[in-house]
Design goal:
It is a single chain. The protein has 301 residues and is an alpha/beta fold. The protein folds into two domains: 253 residues, Ribonuclease Z/Hydroxyacylglutathione hydrolase-like (Metallo-beta-lactamase, Chain A, 4-Layer Sandwich), CATH 3.60.15; 41 residues, no CATH class. It contains ten helices and 18 strands. Strands 6-5-4-3-2-1-18 form a seven-stranded mixed beta sheet. A hairpin with a 5-residue loop joins β11 and β12. α9 crosses α10. The termini are close together. 40% of the residues are buried.
């Protein structure tokens, strides 16, 4: 699983940074988390193929998280998309998108499927054989959700010596790794767990959009491999962060420590800061490893 940062600024473009958007590569697909202004331009710049995007998730309806969506939807149609596109967002987004498409007499070349996210609710939004996306409420000025993406990895690790001992033929290896038992010609049923070991634990990525610093969703992000948490301000502006339902770099680091995550990724920087290096420096005093995200960078989960 990989995360490409397309935009990591808050509110508006500044200092070469763009509003929030991320592309997550998982299970052979690409899913889009938020779609701030200029997202499709950033996708082109960083080689994100729109043909691989089947699911778009919008955390909330502040413009810096969805203003790029109408353009992207329209461009996909102009480029001849035929496979369905699934949008998961607060219900009110269709009150915005429908008039835009109707006024322009836009006729999409593909099936557009909208799935409303219920306000303040947690829900499994997508569940495929290779990954799952779950939404959970965070605490912002308006209804807002974070997302946890879990990569499914059900295959077990093959033990060659045990396979030879129990005379499991090579053509059956993939099936026995997937948990299927093998019946020998003499009638012995060779159990999968006899000749395999537990595989790599599924990787998990948590995306915490705009939110007040709170433990209310701690159980959703506990022990994830990579946590992206907003850090709009440095801690010297903690009063402003609290008033605006945002988080400081220090607070994000303290939360990551309590959640015992593998790695913390910071973003959603306020436009008052030209240099973001101070965010990583501040957070590193309270949690490690931590990285201040950079646009165009691919982060492994």
């Amino acid at each position: 699983m990989q995360v490409t940062i397309l935009g990591n600024n808050s509110a508006l473009p500044a200092f070469g940074r763009h509003p929030t958007a991320q592309a997550v590569s998982v299970g052979g697909e690409t899913i889009l988390l938020d779609c701030g202004e200029g997202t499709q331009i950033q996708m082109e710049r960083y080689g994100i193929r729109w043909r691989k995007i089947s699911h778009i998730f919008i955390s909330h309806l502040h413009g810096d998280h969805y203003f790029g969506l109408p353009g992207l939807i329209n461009s996909m149609s102009l480029l001849g998309r035929t496979i369905p596109l699934n949008l998961y967002a607060p219900a009110a987004i269709m009150d915005i998108l429908n008039p835009i498409l109707q006024v322009a007499d836009t006729r999409l070349s593909y099936e557009f499927q909208f799935h409303p996210i219920e306000e303040n609710a947690e829900a499994i939004l997508v569940d495929t054989p290779t990954y799952q996306v779950k939404a959970f409420p965070v605490e912002h000025r308006i209804a807002c959700h974070g997302f946890v993406i879990t990569e499914k990895n059900n295959a077990r690790k093959l033990l060659p010596d045990k396979c030879r001992e129990y005379e499991v033929p090579t053509y059956f290896f993939e099936r026995i790794k997937a948990g299927e038992d093998y019946e020998r010609k003499d009638g012995l049923l060779v159990k999968s767990e006899w000749v395999t070991a537990a595989g790599i634990p599924p990787r998990r990525y948590a995306y915490c959009a705009d939110t007040l610093c709170t433990d209310s969703f701690l159980h959703h992000i506990r022990s994830v491999d990579l946590l992206y948490h907003e850090s709009t301000y440095l801690h010297e502006d903690v009063a402003k962060a609290t008033m605006r339902y945002h988080t400081t770099a220090r607070q994000a680091a303290e939360l990551a420590a309590r959640a015992e995550v593998g790695h913390l990724l910071l973003g959603h920087y306020s436009s008052k800061y030209k240099d973001t290096a101070a965010f990583q420096q501040e957070a590193a005093a309270y949690f490690s490893p931590v990285t201040a995200s950079l646009e165009g960078t691919i982060y492994e989960v």
